[in-house]
# Entry
Amino acid sequence: MLINFKILPQSSFDLNGYFGMEDFVSIPFYNYESNPSNFFNTNDWGISLQYGAEFSGSVSSSLYLLAISKRLNNHSLSARYTPGYQKEFLFATGESIIINDTTTQSLEASYTYKELFGLGYSYKFNEQFNLGLSVRFFEQDFNQQIVKPVFGDTLYLVTEIISEDINFWKADFGIDYFLNDKIQFRLASINLLNFGDDPTIQEFQGFEMKQERGAFLATSYFPFDFLNLNFIYETTTSLQFSATGAAGNFVYGLTAFHDKYQEPYIAGLVPAFGYRTDLFEILLSGVTYFSERSTDASFSQFYEEGIDNIINNRYSFDKVVLSFAVKINSTPEKKVELIDVEIVREIYPTFYDMYLDKPFAYGKVVNISSRPVSVTPSAKIEGVTDGQIDSPQLMVQPGDTATVSFFITIPEKYNQEKANLSYVDFYVAVTFDQPDDQLQEATIINSINAWDGNVVNLRYFINKEINFSMNYAKSVLSENKAILDSLSIDLYEFEKAKILFDDFVKKMVYVSDPRASVEYVQFPKQTFELKGGDCDDLSVAYCSILESVGIQTALVDYKGNGEIRHVNVLFNTKLSAEEARLITNNDSKYFLRKNEQEIDEIWIPVETTSLTDFNEAWSIGVEKFNREAIDELGIASGKVEIIDVY
Amino acid sequence: MKKILTYLLISTSALILFSCDKPAPTQLIDDTNNELEVELLNKDLDNPYSSGTDTSGITQDLTGITNLISISGIKITTENRTSEFSLAQAMFFDKSKPINYSDGRILAFKTLIPGIIKFNGTEANIVPYRIKFRDMGIQRDTLIGNKYLLYNIFGGFPDPFYFNYNASVSFDFDPFSPGENISFNIPTPKEIVGSVTLTGYVRNENLDVLLRWNPIGNKKITIIVGLMRPNQISSIPVYRMKTRDDGELRIPGRYLNQLPLENFEKIVFTFVRSYEYTHGNGDNDLFVSSQSIHSIVIEIP
# Structure
């Protein structure tokens, strides 16, 4: 008797050969055979098909596979329809009937095995692990002519066809493990779970697919882009090894396979050659067998051995297969990655436009696409900025890592008086639709009164509430209109500054900053409300008042020598050197600076912490300026710096 | 993107439409020795012999045969008791005198007695040769002439003719009309010894028959399946099955389960291993059949 009939549904053979999980094959054509974890590299939707021809003496063409996939972050979903995954066996059963004493009719049978549908799901745990599940639907159509006696008035024999469809689902798990960029492993089950029908017709018992359990083990070594090596072993003792690679947009592979049910030991080869772009991939592959193939075969061998794969068995013929896959992205495909970000400047909200000129952070961006891309970095600070602030674009070559700068601007309406912890979202994008990658970093947002100690940045405080200062200044000047009207126009600036200072100091006392880790600067309005401040508060307020009525000011930064720094004010009288006698006969009481027309103008230093009157503040300011800036060569040595407010 | 999608959809649809080829099927060649040729012998089980039969009860079409020499070694096993017989007969047909059915079809031909015939040196008896057949719904029994006959039921009685298996039987013909005598040896087949395993029940329609016999591995054997009514000793042949002489045959259950077995008491499986050949040529061809026959009669469960 014939026993041990065995047909194993679909081992790991792939019509494209085995490509492993190389980056350059972004759509693996959704063959669960060679991709048991069924994770794929498309960003969004993918559609693929395999169309081919089989050469069995005649040529028959088939749509082998039509598949669709969808990736949702770390989840991959796919479904495939495989109308060409079928194999039919025809058999003259050996049973015959004699009709009309002389005519003999032989009875025939057919056994058709099909894999019709497949569904896949996989999850990418991290860069090292994928775990996937594939579920596949198989159909077995069995038909056989039989002779049946029918007894009525007479006895006669009739032939009829008995049929049975025996369907089943099989489910398998697969896992990918990426040891590093060059070595990866795969492990998958073969026929782990099977659900289906059993044959009920005696004639078909023993012809159904047997579903022996097994395991699929694969390892890949990627020493170079142009040469990758893969090896697959199945516990059914079948194996494959392949060499694959990529050169530019071209991919290629050559797979040799051993099947225990086929001769010779290396039963055949699967060469493949393809072209890929960011949008589509096309692959031409073929299957060539080393043993001679025939459309006739021994029933005994078929019955004893069965087939272990519907599309690759001892009854299969040479094939040519054209595979085509297209990526359809509702979201742009990720082309760049943001691998690191460093915040290099603290955020002082009052310096609203400072970060437009000086990046507050730098990031490292890698171009993971195959083409040069223009990267747009952007950043958003939670609770501070109005949405994302784009920074200048940067071209990055394929595979290169570049440093991108992040700039922001802070809305003037920001009014947080206390420092707080916030988060900065950094983005890099190639298209305007959606960022390719993003990172988040925590940072401290200082209070609006925080100052970094850099006198240059006091101008932000000067300008912050310029309307308040202007209202104040106009009010004071209108009160002194008679004085001003009596003066020569040349003394107008000087006298305005004097009147404003004298009024300003009447309301002020000197008060030190609160103890804090960062310096604290009051806005002019706060200084008036608090009726005092330290040197920088008073200088900021006085500068703001003068600037609000068009008097050009500068801050004098006395950087000291291990001592406490000091700030006071210079203002431009608009008087020429020859007009100095209008305000003083002492040449040391003023300071000449060239204007834009290279004409000397008289600038007067004012010590804003001298809260008696203008002349006193002028004298103290001049004395300090002459001593530290001039006599001690402070300006030349950089210990004293004059910083124009505008 | 829309353009690409459109092209893709159109080309995919076209591929599906025009890709209806199925992969080439593989024709499996039967190398299993499981050949089974089935012939229905009796259409009317209530009125058997609806076609020409010889006296052994084995239906044979006699219209294509000029002259027939048949020798048989027969065993019949009933309830573990086996009886053995030997049979030799010869018939010579006159092709100019056909016997027709009413519709004109030839049933057989009238027979001749052209001389003296001896089997193993024993002269054969000349006896009437009747055939039974059904014509126009009426059972007929007609004498078509005489034939030569020797048979040995037990110990050389009534005729001292012994069928030796796997040996030969001598045949001698001495014509009445002028002409040469014809003598030759008829080889006999190896004895066939069969067994039947019948399981299941008629009422359950699950009868299953496994036949086994001593195989000789080449050629074919014939198995006749017959039915016996209660209290009758002759069987009604139903099927003739030919299969390889490989020692085993499982008769598909449907062949038995669909028969009206409730009207019958016993079922007979007859194993026939035969040598058949034509001796001579032209109008005087002799169709020679040498058979080992083992009939097993068992109760229908």
In short: The interface with chain A takes residues 1, 4-5, 8, 12, 15-16, 19, 21-32, 34-40, 42-45, 61, 238, 252-255, 258-260 of chain B (CB under 8 Å). The CA atoms of residues 87 and 210 of chain B lie 28 Å apart.
